[in-house]
Amino acid sequence: MLNFDYKNPTKILFGKGQIAALAKEIPVQAKVLMLYGGGSIKTNGVYEQVKNALKDFEVVEFGGIPANPEYDILMEALAIIKKENITYLLAVGGGSVIDGTKFLSSAALYTGEEPWDILTKPIRTEKGMPFGTVLTLPATGSEMNSGAVITRRSTQQKLGMGGPGLFPIFSVLDPQVINSIPDRQIANGITDAFTHVLEQYMTYPAKALLQDRIAESIMQTLIEIAPVILKDKSNYEAASDFMWSCTMALNGLIQKGVPTDWSVHAIGHELTALYDIDHARTLAIIAPSLYRYKFNTKKEKLAQYAERIWNIQTGSVEEKAMQAIEKTEAFFHSLNIKTKLSEYTDDYKKCAGFAAERLKSRGWIALGERKDITPDDVFKIVEMSY
Amino acid sequence: MLNFDYKNPTKILFGKGQIAALAKEIPVQAKVLMLYGGGSIKTNGVYEQVKNALKDFEVVEFGGIPANPEYDILMEALAIIKKENITYLLAVGGGSVIDGTKFLSSAALYTGEEPWDILTKPIRTEKGMPFGTVLTLPATGSEMNSGAVITRRSTQQKLGMGGPGLFPIFSVLDPQVINSIPDRQIANGITDAFTHVLEQYMTYPAKALLQDRIAESIMQTLIEIAPVILKDKSNYEAASDFMWSCTMALNGLIQKGVPTDWSVHAIGHELTALYDIDHARTLAIIAPSLYRYKFNTKKEKLAQYAERIWNIQTGSVEEKAMQAIEKTEAFFHSLNIKTKLSEYTDDYKKCAGFAAERLKSRGWIALGERKDITPDDVFKIVEMSY
Known about the structure:
Two copies of one chain form a homodimer. The first copy, chain A, is α/β, with parallel strands linked by helices. The first copy, chain A, has helices at residues 46-53, 71-83, 95-109, 117-120, 183-199, 209-231, 236-249, 263-275, 279-293, 295-310, 317-334, 351-361, 375-384, and strands at residues 4-14, 31-35, 58-62, 88-93, 131-135, 147-152, 157-162, 170-173. The first copy, chain A, is 46% helix and 12% strand. In chain A, helix 2 (71-83) crosses helix 3, helix 5 (183-199) packs antiparallel against helix 6 (209-231) and helix 9 crosses helix 10 (295-310). The longest helix of chain A is centred in the middle third of the chain and has 23 residues, at 209-231. Chains A, B: This is Iron-containing alcohol dehydrogenase.
C-alpha cells in the first residue's frame, strides 16, 4: 500500500425525508443563495421541500446552471453573491450544479482580479464560502469530494479545480429523488460512477488488499442494481444502493494507498468539449480502447477484475483480462450506452488529432498511472474508439 | 438501507515515516501533553520519532496509562493538564491510550464537578480539547472514531462515552510499528477488528448491498493477512492491510444504513471487568455462543457470511449458517485465541449470573439489533460460553 493522507469532513444526511433536516446544518444568521439547474426540481417536489426547510432563512435563488457548468453563467451568480451579501451557498442538483457551486465558493472569497485564474493557474482553494448540497442526480460524487470541473464555451475549455476548502459542509442524499430522473441520466450516472472506480483500480497491483476489495464492492453493487433500477426507478432499496455507490466511488476513499490513472477522464473531457457528448458516455467510449492500448501494464488488474467482478475463472491472465474488457463494454451496452465515437457523431475522423492537440496545447500533463501516455498514445487511443 | 447521518473529520496520515509529519497538524503555539502507556514506545523507536517531530513545541509527558484505561490514573493526568495549561493532547499508543486521551479531551473542558459523570450520566461530548494520535497497536479503531471505553477498578465498572467532539484531529498510522508488537497483541487486534465488523453485520438482512460488501471486504482482508502477519511481522504490506482494516472496521462507515448489535461487546466487557481477560478474547468467547443462541434471527446473514467469506456454497440456510459459526471459531483458534471461558479461568461457574446481574444493576439497556436480548438471555449465552 502506498503512503496517503486522507480527510473528508463532509456530513452526509442519507435517506427518506432528510431534506427537511438540512436547516439545522446551516448557521441561523446565514443569507443563503440557492442554486439549481434547468428547473426539474420544480416538478419533482424537491424545490418545495428545500424551500420549506429554508423557511426561516433569507434566501436568494439562482437557477439555470447548465450541464457542464458554464463559467459565464456562474459569473452572473458571483455578481449576485457580492451584491446580496450572501454568506452560504446551497446547491440543489447534480454534479454540474454542485461543481458550479464549488467554483462560486472559491470565487466568492478569491481576492485576485480574474476568477478564471482559479482554473488556469490553477489555484488550490484552502478556504471557500461554506456550502451544502441536496443531490438530485447520483453520478459524479461531487457531493462528498472537494473537486469540480468547469466549462468555458467561448474558449472550448473544460478545466478542473479543487482544494480542502471545497468539501461540502453537508450533503443530503434522499434516494426518492431517483424516481423522477430520466432513464438516460440514470444510465449516465451508473456509467460515470463505474468508470470512477475503474480509474482508481485499473492500474498495476499495489498490494492494497482492502482498498481493492472496497473498489470491487462498489462495482459489484452497481452491476447488481443497474438492471433493477433501470426497470423500476421507484425501487427505493435499489435507488439507495445506486446513490450511495456513486458517492463512495469518488469521495476520496478508494484512491488512497493505490496508484490512480484518470486518463479516461482527461481524454473524455475533450470529447465533451468538442462534440457535447454526455460526460459519462465519453468515458464509455474511451475506457475500453485505453485498456486495450495499455493492456500490458494493466493486464494483472484486469485479470483480478475478471475473476472477482465477472467471475471469469479460467484462462491465462491475458485471456481473462481481454474478456474483462469485453464484459465491461457489454455492461455499458446493457445500460443502452454506446461505446464507439462514430455512434455519436459523423464528424469523428479528425477527433484523434484534435484531442491530442488540445491536451498538448494546454501544456502536456503526463497521463496514466505511470505517466507514460504521450500525445501520440492519446491519438491512437481515440482512433481505436472510432 | 436505513436512514443515516455520517461525518468523520479525522485526518489520517498513513504509511512509512508519517510520524515526522505530525508537527504540521498541531497549532504552532500549542502546549502539548504527550500520553502513552507502559513504555514500549521507548524501545521500539516511536518515542524518539514523536519527540523529534515535536521538537519545536513545549511538551509535557504522561506515561503509564494501562490497558483498559483506569479512571484514577487518568485523573492524575487531568490534574497535570490543568496545572500546566495544556492546550493539545497527543496519544501515542493503542486503543487504551487513545481512549484515555478521549476521556481527558472531554474532562479538560468539562465544567461539572465530577468527571465520572461523563460516563455514568452519560454526557455526550460536543467539544473536547483537540488531540491527535500516533497509533502503535491496531485493534480498536479508536484512532478514527469518537468513542471511548473507560474502566474504574474501585467499582469494577467499564463504561462507554462519546460525542462528535471526540474525533481525533489527526491520526498517524505507520505500519512499521507492527514489527515490535508481541504476537499475543497482534492476535488480539485481528480478533477485535474482526468482531467489530461482525457486530455491524451479523444482524438481519437490510438490503444495504454496498455496506454489506464493504464489511465483507474487511473480514476477507483480515482472514487473508492474519497468517501472513503472524508468521512475519516485518511484512510491511501485510502490516499495512492489517492496520488499515482495523481502522476501517470501526470508523463509523460500515455501521451506516444497517442495524447493529454490539451485545457481544456489552457482555464481553463484563468478563474483562470480572476476570481481567483481554478485551478481544472476551469477544471470541461470547460471539459464537451468542450467534448460536440468536440463530433464528441471524441465520440469513450468517448464511450470506458463510457463502461470501467462507465459500460455503452447499446446504440449507441453516446448515450454511451453522458451519459459518464453526469457521469463525476455527479462525479464532488459528490465531491462538481460545473461545471458552473455562480455558481462561477455573472460577467461571458463577459468571453467567454475575454478568447478567451487573448489566441489570446499571439499569438494563436492551441488547441486540432487535433489542430483544434479556438478562435471562445473557445468563444463557454466558453459560453456553463456559
